[in-house]
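Let us practice reading a record.
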Amino acid sequence: MSRQNDISATIRRIQKEIRSLPNISDRLNFILDETLTLFGASTGSISIADSEENVLTIVAAKGMDWEKKIAAKLPFALGVTGHAASSREIIYVPDVSKDPSYIKLI
């Protein structure tokens, strides 16, 4: 099976399974876990953008303790994720720890 088929199948399965989860937090954590598994990653996060404050707020994370997660508000254009948010482009970084704009929160 091709990688594209794997991704499509995973997205369909996620769409089906999130309907049974009781709240948005559980749904976001499930989506994050499935995405990390699909791409073979051990850590990651989902952030929402606040365009009024120009910051990203982490709403789901793996590999980051709760206190850091709820305290993390990253300005747009700061770090890999901030750059992706400000440019509105997908940025693929195979190993963020080797990227010069990486900000370590964990």
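A brief commentary: The helical segments are 3-18, 24-39, 66-71, 79-87.
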